[in-house]
Structures are given as C-alpha cells and as structure tokens.
C-alpha cells in the first residue's frame, strides 16, 4: 500500500471523526423531546410569529403542527378536544357574538369548553391601518390620523379622502376620492381587538353603528365586523393585506397585524395617542403601551371562579400618556390545558406533551421575544411574561425550568437578567415633529421642531412616513439654500425619527432600543468551530499532504517547476 493511499485514509478517518462529533452534538440538542408532536389551530394574527418559533424549537425534537385558521375556529377545535393548544386573540365566549352573521358555521356562538384551560400571553402587537392612496401618481406614505377620524371612517361617517377631518389631522389636502374600508369576513381576533378599542374609547359612535347594522350593541367586542356601504370584507389577514396592496386597492384602508405591512414594506397610518403624538405600531411603541396591560386574577382580585379570570384588561393601554405609546396595542393568547381542576384535561394530552408544550412556551416568552421586532410584533413585557409562566406551571408535565418570581434565565429583551424592566428606559422618544399640530413642513433643529424657510421645498410629512417596514422620511426638506437643518430621517429598526446633522443626507443614527434576545451561544460556537474545521481545514490539509507525496514520487520542484529524476531525465507523467 502506498504512502499516498495510507495518508488519504488517515485524513478520511479524521474527517469522519469530526463529522461524527458534529452529528452527536446536533442529535444531543434534540433528544429531550424526541418524537413529541403537538397540534394547534387558531389566530392568523399570531400566525407568522408562531410559525417562526415552531421552526426554532424543531432541533429540540418538538414538532408543532399549527393551522392559522382564525381565533374563532381555533377555539371551537380546542373546546371539542381536537387540539393540544390553540392560539386566540380573545378569550372563550360566554355568550353569542352579537355581530355573528348568518351562515358562519357556528363560530360566534356561546362557547363552553369541556376541559380546563389557562390563558398564556404569547404575541403582542399593534392593530395597524394599511392604506392605498396615490397623489400625483405616487403612493402616499406619511398619512397620520386621530382615533376619532379612524372610527368615523370605519362607521361610515367619513366617506372621502379629502374630508375636513382627514385634512385637519394630516395637514394637507388629499384627492376627492371615495374611501373603501376593508374589514374581515371571518371570525377574527384583529376585528375583536379593534372593535374592543372602539367600544371602550368611542362607545356612542360604535354602539350606534352596530345598532344600525345588527339591531343591537356589539357588546364588549365582536369578532365579526358588520359591514356596510362601500366596505369590502375579506377572509384572512393576508388576504386583507394583499387586497389593499393590489392595483385595484386604490382608495382602500384596512386594519391588520403590523407584521403583514412590515413584510411588504407597505405604509401604515401614524395614530394619535393620548399624549398628543402620532405613533407607529413599532415594537418599542407597542411594548411601552403594554406595560399598562393587566391580567385579571394576576394583577387584581378577580376570582378563579369568575368567567373573566386570566383575561386581559387593556383599558390602561388605551389611555396611556407616554408619548411613545401606540394606543391600539394588544396581545394574543395560547389556550393550554390546565391540570388539577374539576373538568380535567383532554385525554389526548399527556405529560410528555406537557413537557414539550411548556418548553415551547418558555422559549416563546423568553428568547423568542427577541425575534418579535423583525417579525412585525412587539416583545411581551415583564408583567405579561410572569403572568404567562404562572399559568404554564399548571400544565401537566411542566418542564420549562424558568422561575416566574426571578426570571433570571429568561432572555426577554424588555427586562435584564435581574428582572428589571428596561423597555421604558431604552425605547426611543418620538420626534418633536410627531406632536399634534406640527405642519407637514416641520423639521428638527437642535432637538426642537421648526418650520423650514420658504425658500426650500419639503418632501414628506412632519408626522413621519408610516411605511410598513418602519422606513421613510420625516419632514425631509430639500433645496434649502441656507444650509440649515433639512429635517429628519426615520431609523429603519425603530420607525422613529432621527435628526439630520445639518446637511442633506447627513443623518445621525438613533438610539435603538435593544430588542434581540440574550441567547446562549456556546453550543452554536462549538458546532460552528467543528464544522469549520471539518469543512475548511481538512480539505487543504489533505490536498497539501497529497501534493507532498506526489513531489516525493515525481521529483517535482517546490515552486511548481519540474525537477529531473534520479537518472537525470524528466520523470514520466
């Protein structure tokens, strides 16, 4: 056997050992919950986030099969014992939904689940308002409106884009074009959250609209928006988003989860908050707002026997006067089996499933929230994380390993390793041009709102570009001959305005709130090092070894020249 062959085999063995080590480490990360499969249905509002987190835990051997068929459908499936968990933006209904249309397949009826359950907060976000209005052939991207105006649009009291109320909020004139509101045709958590907001902040307007459409008040909320007039009803969050973005969507406005707008980089409206600032539904603005959210029975004295036990109370969110808050902010639940109670848990649910589900939820509430911003959501703040983990403790086989009282091993971006809430400290403040009353020509100079000289033209709005991706320009004045500050840009990570440095294009980076999770990188580093050694280091080593052996046999020179053989002749090739 030649030395070349022997060396090749030695290298091959080394490569095999390295690749085997990589495989063993990879397998070890997924053995804890091997072959554990969980089934769920529900919220399309939370669907994109749940899908990402499902992929994240697959290496642990946790298989999640989730169908985003809407909150109402998911609750029906779970109540019948067909699922291991469900996702819903609203709780189980104790009575029929007043807005339920005829032929809704039973969704919207009173719900009486036969097994015990808990509500666990999992995804947070703002109800965003996508719109499609073109001015002079260009898509408008800087629209800002008050909640009063939005409610009047969705109750048929404002019909044209050049309505005086819209002009007052926006600060400019829009085309004389009919407004086409786009609503959901299916039972939708997005509808429930928006209608709950209207019921709690504009009760007389919303109640009178419901009375005219369905003959009664829609109650605390409805998952079925009663359409009227020019309204167009569409089935599913993605369909609503696609309808608005289509060429035939001119003049439309619809409510949807911010994730759908952000993915498409589509404009959404800046909504006036109680502090008097127009705000986008960015991750930090929603997180700030949800620090005022409460859980009944956790943050108050609601009894476990009360039908409202563990449900959300968002009244403080709607009225929060922090200038960064986005007023129509909310969160959705996972509904999970609760052991130790009178009705018991579904027979299909085992301790092994409970172990896998508790680890999935632990990941969602902690490290998974670090991905919320890039997915178009907001990280759930500390109070909701603690409340959720307290409910996970009642899951049969709970094995998530996180202490709700300490949270020291929960890498959630809204608080630090000692459990201290940091989002209110780190979230960026709004631009002075976002304050109500500032004109479209507003710019920022020395941290204050100013109106540029009339000699320069202005592109964009003082209220900022409400693009779905959080990008655009805010009062980006151009052509100012004096060289004075020309306005603001918008930070693409936060959607917040940042001050220019005095000249066109000289923008200064904003202070961005940290929204990435604090992941343990040791395993990833080990795997990466081994993989690099196997893939990058071994082939050159093998190649060099073979080259040296060849030279010894052929007498090749070190620099690529050809040397003579022992007999003084050229070696035979």
Q: Can you walk me through this structure?
A:
The chain has 573 residues and is of the alpha/beta class. The chain has 3 domains: 1-30 and 527-573; 117-426, Periplasmic binding protein-like II (D-Maltodextrin-Binding Protein, domain 2, 3-Layer(aba) Sandwich), CATH 3.40.190.10; 428-519, no CATH class. 31% of the residues lie in helices and 16% in strands. The chain has 16 helices and 22 strands. The protein has helices spanning 3-28, 47-57, 71-79, 147-153, 164-170, 189-201, 203-214, 237-245, 258-264, 283-290, 315-318, 351-365, 372-375, 382-392, 423-426, 522-554; strands at residues 36-42, 62-67, 85-88, 117-131, 134-135, 138-139, 144-145, 180-184, 232-234, 252-257, 270-272, 278-279, 294-295, 312-313, 329-337, 443-445, 448-450, 457-459, 473-474, 476-478, 488-490, 497-499. Strands 2-1-3-15-4-10-8-9 form an 8-stranded mixed β-sheet, sandwiched between helices. Strands 7-11-12 form a 3-stranded mixed β-sheet. A hairpin with a 2-residue loop joins strand 16 (443-445) and strand 17. The longest helix has 33 residues, at 522-554. The radius of gyration is 29 Å and the shape is globular.
What is the CATH class of the largest domain? Alpha Beta
Alpha-beta content class: alpha/beta
- Output the CATH homologous superfamily of the largest domain: Periplasmic binding protein-like II
Q: Regions with pLDDT < 50 over 5+ consecutive residues?
A: 1-6, 14-33, 454-465, 467-547, 549-573
The helix content, as a percent range, equals: 25-40%
Count of spatially separate domains: 3
Query: Which strand order do you get reading across the main beta sheet?
Result: 2-1-3-15-4-10-8-9
Distance between the termini: 20 Å
InterPro entries: PBP_domain, Phosphate-bind_PstS
Domain PBP: 30-354
Family: Belongs to the PstS family.
Protein name: Substrate-binding domain-containing protein
């Amino acid at each position: 056997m030649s030395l070349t062959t022997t060396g090749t085999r030695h290298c091959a063995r080394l490569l095999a050992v390295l690749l085997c080590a990589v495989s063993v480490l990879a397998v070890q990360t997924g053995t804890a919950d091997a072959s554990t499969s969980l089934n769920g249905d529900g919220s399309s509002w939370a669907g994109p986030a749940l899908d990402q987190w499902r992929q994240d835990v697959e290496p642990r051997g946790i298989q999640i099969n989730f169908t985003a068929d809407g909150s109402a459908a998911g609750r029906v499936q779970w109540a019948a014992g067909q699922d291991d968990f469900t996702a819903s933006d609203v709780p189980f209904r104790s009575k029929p939904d007043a807005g339920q249309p005829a032929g809704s397949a039973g969704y919207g009826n009173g719900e009486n689940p036969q097994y015990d359950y808990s509500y666990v907060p999992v995804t947070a976000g703002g109800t965003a308002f996508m719109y499609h209005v073109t001015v002079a052939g260009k898509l408008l991207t800087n629209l800002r409106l008050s909640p009063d105006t939005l409610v009047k649009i969705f109750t048929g009291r404002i019909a044209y884009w050049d309505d005086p109320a819209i002009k007052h909020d926006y600060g400019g004139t829009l085309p004389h074009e009919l407004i086409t509101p786009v609503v959901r045709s299916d039972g939708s958590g997005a509808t429930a959250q928006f209608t709950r907001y209207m019921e709690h902040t504009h009760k007389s307007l919303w109640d009178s609209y419901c009375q005219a459409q369905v003959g009664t008040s829609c109650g605390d909320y409805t998952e079925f928006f009663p359409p009227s007039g020019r309204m167009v009803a569409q089935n599913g969050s993605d369909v609503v988003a696609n309808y608005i973005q289509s060429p035939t969507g001119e003049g439309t406005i619809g409510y949807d989860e911010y994730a759908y707008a952000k993915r498409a980089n589509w404009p959404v409206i800046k909504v006036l908050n109680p502090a008097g600032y127009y705000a986008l539904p960015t991750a930090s603005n929603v997180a700030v707002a949800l620090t005022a959210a409460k859980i009944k029975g956790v943050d108050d004295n609601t009894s476990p026997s009360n039908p409202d036990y563990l449900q959300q109370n968002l009244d403080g969110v709607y009225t929060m006067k922090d200038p960064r808050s986005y007023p129509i902010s909310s969160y959705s639940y996972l509904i999970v089996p609760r052991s130790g109670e009178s009705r018991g848990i579904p027979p299909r649910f085992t301790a092994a499933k409970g172990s896998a589900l508790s680890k999935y939820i632990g990941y969602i509430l902690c490290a998974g929230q670090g991905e919320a911003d890039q997915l178009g959501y907001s990280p759930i703040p500390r109070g909701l994380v603690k409340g959720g983990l307290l409910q996970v403790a009642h899951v049969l086989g709970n094995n998530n390993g996180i202490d709700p009282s300490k949270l020291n091993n929960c890498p959630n971006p809204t608080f630090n390793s000692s459990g201290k809430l940091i989002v209110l400290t780190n979230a960026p403040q709004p631009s002075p041009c976002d304050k109500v009353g500032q004109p479209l020509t507003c710019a920022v100079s020395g941290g204050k709102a100013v109106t540029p000289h009339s000699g320069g033209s202005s592109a964009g709005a003082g209220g900022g570009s409400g693009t779905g991706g959080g990008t655009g320009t805010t009062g980006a004045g151009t052509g100012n001959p004096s060289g004075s500050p020309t306005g603001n840009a918008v930070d693409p990570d936060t959607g917040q305005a940042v001050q220019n440095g005095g000249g066109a294009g000289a923008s200064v980076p904003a202070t961005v709130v940290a929204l990435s999770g604090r992941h343990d990188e040791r395993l990833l580093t080990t795997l990466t090092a081994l993989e690099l050694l196997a893939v990058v280091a071994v082939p050159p080593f093998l190649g060099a070894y073979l080259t040296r052996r060849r030279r010894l046999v052929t007498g090749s020179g070190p620099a690529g020249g050809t040397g003579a053989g022992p007999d003084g002749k050229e070696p035979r090739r």
